[in-house]
């Protein structure tokens, strides 16, 4: 019986558990739960932005303002707010629609993660 060490929970898993962990062993770092959540949030946001504003993911910087890059306008902020409510159940208040929360895709991801923890 083989035993492998996995970083995700720092527990030993027996061979039968490999299928549950997609067969990744110590040499391949598994994502933490928080990293998976942030990755999911980011991918859903990017999918929405690319579909709604007809851009490709590699056509804009994820850490720069979507408004400054000409991807969206002020109405786009409202559309993203509506998407966040529909997709994640987050209600965005008017005072939360600022550059520190909506300033970039990465800031949006952080904002959504914070709101989901509340």
Furnish the topology, listing elements before pairings.
Layout (H helix, E strand, L loop, with lengths): L2 E4 L4 E4 L18 H21 L20 H15 L10 H4 L2 H13 L1
Antiparallel strand pairs: 1-2
Helix pairs in contact: 1-2, 1-4
Structural account:
- Helix 1 (33-53) packs across helix 2 and helix 1 packs across helix 4 (105-117).
- The protein is globular.
- The chain folds into 2 domains: 1-30, no CATH class; 31-117, ACP-like (Non-ribosomal Peptide Synthetase Peptidyl Carrier Protein, Chain A), CATH 1.10.1200.
- The chain is built from 4 helices and 2 strands; from the N terminus they run ββαααα.
- 45% of the residues lie in helices and 7% in strands.
- It has helices spanning 33-53, 74-88, 99-102, 105-117, and strands at 3-6, 11-14.
- The model is unreliable at 1-31 (pLDDT under 50).
- By secondary structure, the chain is mainly alpha-helical.
- Strand 1 (3-6) and strand 2 (11-14) form a beta hairpin.
- The chain has a two-stranded antiparallel ribbon.
The CATH topology of the largest domain is given as Non-ribosomal Peptide Synthetase Peptidyl Carrier Protein, Chain A
Q: What is the number of helices?
A: 4
> If classified by CATH, what would the architecture of the largest domain be?
Orthogonal Bundle
Uncertain residue segments: 1-31
How would you summarize this macromolecular structure in one to three sentences?
The chain is mostly helical and 118 residues long. It is 45% helix and 7% strand. It starts with a strand and ends with a helix.
């Amino acid at each position: 019986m083989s035993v492998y060490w996995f970083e995700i929970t720092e527990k030993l898993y027996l061979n039968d558990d490999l299928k549950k962990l997609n067969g990744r062993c110590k040499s391949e770092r598994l994502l933490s739960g928080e990293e998976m959540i942030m990755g999911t949030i980011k991918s859903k946001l990017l999918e929405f932005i690319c579909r709604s504003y007809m851009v490709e993911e590699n056509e804009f910087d994820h850490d720069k303002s979507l408004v400054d890059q000409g991807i969206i306008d002020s109405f786009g902020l409202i559309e993203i707010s509506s998407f966040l409510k529909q997709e994640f159940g987050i209600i965005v208040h008017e005072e939360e629609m600022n550059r520190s929360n909506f300033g970039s895709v990465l800031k949006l991801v952080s904002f959504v993660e914070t709101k989901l923890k509340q």
